[in-house]
Design goal:
The protein is mainly α and 90 residues long. 82% of the residues lie in helices and 0% in strands. It is built from three helices and no strands. Helix 1 (5-41) packs antiparallel against helix 2. The model has no long low-confidence stretch (mean pLDDT 94).
Length: 90
Amino acid sequence: MAHHKSAKKRIRQTERRTEVNRARVSRIRTFVKKVELAIAAGNAEEAKAAFLAAEPELVRGAQAGVLHKNTASRKVSRLAARVKDMKPLA
């Protein structure tokens, strides 16, 4: 256990940041899952709407440092390609 005041403070800060980052990652996963569920259901309109909501979340996660920039970019690209390939219901 930490004995120095600064080490104790650092532990408190780390716990706080960890909690915030876990919430961010969870939020990102939720948005991505909504897109994937819409794609699986074959609903092009819903998938597009979900993708437009998920993309900024992924970018924000990269800016916050919970995802690597290239990871976020790759996920956005792959989701966009899958949404684009869907046939709209006529």
